[in-house]
Specification:
- The longest helix has 11 residues.
- The chain has one domain.
- By secondary structure, the protein is mainly beta.
- The two termini are 26 Å apart.
């Protein structure tokens, strides 16, 4: 089936495994900034409203890198190392998916690698 998107059409396909897997929903969002107070909680509300399990965040603008828990969410982020609130990426996991994180590698303010199982 096709999924509509602003830039065109993206195709998806079913991948069959030999063992049944639990389904989960992944999304991305360019938030422009998460450095303002309360913005992270807006993301949590949207994740709950849209039943999103894992949210990739662009333009997070949090300095340095980290792996923190806020409320029932795990927030892993990678930003600039000079302390400036510029650029930055993050991944937010709901409580169900937070325990599935196997490894975290912050590469730069634009790349964050997270391995899940």
């Amino acid at each position: 089936p096709s999924i509509g998107c602003p830039g065109g059409t993206v195709s998806s396909r079913d991948v069959r495994n030999t063992r049944p897997q639990e389904e989960f929903k992944i999304a991305t969002w360019n938030v422009k900034t998460m450095s303002q107070q309360g913005k992270i909680h807006n993301a949590f509300k949207e994740m709950e409203r849209m039943s999103i399990d894992i949210l990739g965040v662009g333009e997070m603008r949090w300095p340095d890198s980290g792996d923190i828990y806020i409320d029932d969410y795990r927030v892993i982020y990678s930003g600039k190392t000079d302390g400036k609130h510029e650029y930055g990426v993050g991944i937010i996991f709901n409580s169900k998916m937070a325990r599935c994180v196997k490894s975290v590698t912050p590469v730069s303010e634009r790349i964050l690698m997270v391995q899940i199982r």
